Amino acid sequence: MQNDLKKNALVGMSSLLALATAMSATAQSAGKNDDLEEIVVTGIRGSLQHNLNIKREASGVVDAITSEDIGKFPDSNVAASLQRVPGVSIQRNGQRGEADGITVRGFANDFNETLFDGRHISTATGGRSVDFSTVGSDFVGGLMVMKTPDVTLSSSSIGATVNILYPKPFDHPGMRVAASLSGSRQQRSGKTTPSFGALFSNTFADDKFGVLVDVIYTKRDTVTNRVGVSGWQGDFLHPCQMATNPSEVCSAAELDPNNKVEVARRNIVSWHQQQFVGEQSQAADKRIDGRIALQWHPTENVMLTLDDNYSKQDITTDVYGFGVWFDFNAYRNTKLDSNGTIVDFINQKDVMNWNASVNGSLRKTNQILQRRRRSQR
Question: Regarding the domain delimited by 39-166, which CATH topology (the fold level of the hierarchy) does it fall under?
Answer without folding.
Answer: Ferric Hydroxamate Uptake Protein; Chain A, domain 1 (2.170.130)
